[in-house]
Amino acid sequence: ENIILNKWNPFNCDADSLFQDVILWMPAMTISHLYEVEAGNHYLYECAKQNKWLQFLVFAQIFQIPKEQVLKAASRFSNSCISYHIFHSLHRKSSLLYDVAYETKSVSSLKSQKKDMRRSLYTRIGVIKDAPVESKKNTEPDDDKISVTSEETSTSSDTDLRSYVLKDLFSQLLLAHGTDSPSDCLLHTCYEIQNPILAALAASYPEAPIEACFFMWLYTSLSHNETIQKQLETFFPELRIPNINTDDLENLIVIAIHHHKILTLWQGVHIFLPSTPLPSLMGFLRSFIVYKRFDSSIEAFQNKLWDYPKNTEKSSVLHSLFWIENISVTILKEVVISCSSNYERQLLLRHFSHTRLEKSFSKEVMVPQFIKVYHMRQCLGDVAQDIDVKNLFLPEHDTQYKATCWEAITKLLQHHSYEDAQLFSEHAKLPQDQMLMLQINQETDEARVSPSWQDLHIRIHFWQNLILKLQVLSLHTAVDFLEVQCEISDMHGEKYFLIKSIIGMIKDNLIQGSTDGTIYNLDSLNKKMWWFCIKAEVNNELLPEIFDVKAVFELNIQEIFFSKKVQPNPCCIEDEKEKEALGSIIGRFLSKSDIHSAFQLALTFGYDSLDLKIIKLCFEVAKGEINIDSVDRSMPDCSNDIASTRVIQSLILWVNKKSTDLTPLQKSIIQCIKDLSLKCIIAVKICYRILVHYIVSLILKEDFINVAQEKNAFSILKKVLVLKLNDELVIAKSFIVVRDLSDKEVAEFLSEEIWNSLKILRSYDLVKIPEDESAFSEQVIYDPLRANEGFQLIVKLCQNPSVLGYSLMSIYSTESAELNYKSSDADFTVLVDLCICAHECFTAACNMDGISQILHNAQTLVTLLEEAEKFSTMVHLLTGLDRYSEMMYVFDILKSHDKFSILFEKKMDNMPNLRLALLDYLKKYPPSENDNYFYTLANRFGMHREKAEILEMSVQKLLSQLCKKNSALDSDMKDELENALQILSDAAKSYCMADCLHQAQNCTRLAQLVALQIYFVPDGVWIIGLDETSVARFITDHNKFSQAFIVAEEYGNHHLWSQALLHNVVIRGDRDYLLEFQAHFGLPTSLISDVVKRYKKLPTKNENTTRNMKLLLSMCSNIKVKYSLAHEMGFADVLSELLMGEASSYLQDLIANNSIK
């Protein structure tokens, strides 16, 4: 309705606006009637607002809006006069729809009334003064099977007679009552005048037969329709009322149902059989079929039927439970058959299925299999809409039933609905072999006409899938079908595959112990198969995928080469192309390691193959049946299998190193087999496999034949790994390569063995086990306590270590599901080790997704360990994963539980990354909080420089904070400064222990500055964190040289001492400052010269400054400079003193030479 409102224009004034509105609102109003929801108010309110009374009334009448809703909307008219007229005209009407199903109609036709209904309405509301008198016409009603009105609306061809009878009904009753059998009289009259009311009156007599009354009432009710009337006259040509029985009534009910007269039957059972379960049944059908209320329920009928007494006091057979159940079954079946649409029929059948309707009836009643029909119709869907449902209710042995079912299956197969066809045949209980063969023939016929059928790949792929279905059928059926297809085929490659499939089926049948395959000649079939194979190779019709991959270690070697059952019976092949094709086929079998097929083909056609000879020779050498000196090795090397050769070369090198365990003869045999392997053109991998098996048999001290024929490769691999030999990786890797074991298979095997090893570890105390002894039994492959090899050895067995990692994580996920804080230490330890092993795999493969998953699982595991207070295991997980930056939360947990000292135990010495992680972690906190940890870390791991750096950094941070609040120099600040002084002292000591003398000196300088600041706290002087101006002012103006020197040393400012001397010595006359300065720095000539320059710039000079300047000048050690400076300043007394002193001669010479003035 909201969607319609967005599209509707209420102000449209076009001539056809009303028609457009009706079309627009039709969906919403239809849905509202279907679900009995109020709708249309927006339209009515808008019409009332605009005083559009005509649109208002037409809309309400067309959509049959209830009276209450219309009156409510009518109150909203702006014009009160219109509102009054509508109220006045409608207040006595119960509905705007003239419904004949619930109102008594006059003799005049309903169709005529409906035709002039609008005119009559206009008359009542005052638009037209006089409504015309409705003419009495005999009109035929519309035969709409769905409409309620059309079903019950009809007129008689003899209107006058019916009107007369209705008017004189009382006289008719008196007339019948005067006869010997009033009910018979009324029934005859009912039949003559076709008025059903008389049959209802006849039923009121006690002696009246109910079945006859019901029959006549229904007969006369249906006879008003010409179509039904003709069918009734045909079905009941000579109707005799005394002879009417229940069979006639049942047939008439079936006719009524076929013509969709559900409401008529509903009225009839309410009139004649009100106390039976039939009114409930017809009520359900009326709601479901007529009013389309598909959510209606049949449970009321089921309850009435279950509660209905088996033995009733009424004598009529219609009240017996047996008849009621039978007629109910008939009605239900016929209603299903006569549904107007497949959708409606499917909904009805589904309702019967869900309510288990079939179990509501007695065992004596033949109830149709509604559930079966429902499932069969569900399988059909929209494919076979024209299938007659009536035939599906027939017995399963009925010919028409089978024909209908096979027709439906054929249509399903034509639409490629194979699964639906299979389900349909199962529900229909048809022979499955016949059904499957029909499907196979359909698929085969369609495949043969497809354009892609000319591609041999398509054909082989098709037959591979089809053979899986043929295995369900009997052997004879499958073989006959494939033989026919082989004869039809026009490709030898296809023929070869079909015959090969037939042979495989026969062999499987014989292995299972059946005798069906004994009637076939396998030798003849084999020759036929190989002949087709050769022909296919000649025509380039052989595909790689039609060769079976069959490993040599799965073969019975004795059967291949030495069985008496296999005797050469060569067929004659003269064509050179066929001989070349034969050699090529044998080579293909050998490349796929199918030595049995290659040998059989060579025997069948007498083909001499070098590779087969070498393979046989290698077996004989490995078994020790021939002397290796008699073996001819002069043939040239032909192998180019570089990958396999590298593995074998590594194995041979290992064998040569193991000289103490292998005899010279054994080494010679190994070298012989290796040399023979290189002579092969194609079968080098097979020979390498023999070689590896022989070496493994020597290592395991087992028989070569047992090792070569062992089908379970992992049992051999486990034995090799359990030995824990030096460089056992070479043997295990070689075995994996020659056995063609995939990474997934190897990973699953290794993960299970690792898990078993860790489970055995639970029962051992690892602390008491010496490192040079194994903690495990001889049946495990992984020993984490072994010092000279570790988990990396096992990881290298997989080409992609991630596969092993994911396999281990799969075990971890399964085992950790039951883990909780109450679990034992052993359970936690095993899972932690499993997690560490998986992490090693992902790290080796650089798999970041796997590492992320490990870290996530580790976080969950740490939570459980914290709850269980198993901190040692937690540290084991932390150090095992070696992911300290990602697992920094473990440090927090240990610290919060006061277990941080576990990280400093002796066994942590061989973990270099741990000390750096601890250092980074401790940097986050002030030294005061971690003094003990710092000292322990430094002492335990010798990390003095790192400790000193952290201490120095913390002091810098502390002093920076103090600089921000230097305006308040109080006792608290003094305490903080003393703390900083102590930290700096420790840092300097740590630097000294680490031989970092320069850094120690820097700490010492800063410590002196801090100590001086502590001294200045009472005076309120701040000397930490000064800018350049403040530093210069302090150095120049401060009267204590030692203190000024500390500041200058820390800030690196030594270029202001001339100014400081001028201020403190020359101007102030502080001789102690001069002596202290001279003791520390001395008085360089350049410094005195700089002071003189600054002195000369003084604006005022007095006697004291002159005397002090002379004193400073007197300390100059350079006579020449002293004389020059005195001369510049005009100190005559100083010049006289110099000329009269010990250096007078020197000065006289300088003056004479004009060096000085």
Automatic annotation (TrEMBL):
Taxonomic placement: Eukaryota, Metazoa, Ecdysozoa, Arthropoda, Chelicerata
Domain of life the protein comes from: Eukaryota
Stretches the record annotates as Disordered: 133-154
Pfam families reported in the protein's UniProt record: Spatacsin_C
Spatacsin C-terminal domain span: 804-1097
Skewed-composition ranges (Basic and acidic residues): 133-146
GO biological process terms held by the UniProt record: axo-dendritic transport; axonogenesis; chemical synaptic transmission; synaptic vesicle transport
Any one cellular-component term (Gene Ontology): axon
UniProt cross-references to InterPro entries, sorted A to Z: Spatacsin, Spatacsin_C_dom
Cited PANTHER family: SPATACSIN
Identification of the protein by name: Spatacsin
Species name: Parasteatoda tepidariorum (Common house spider)
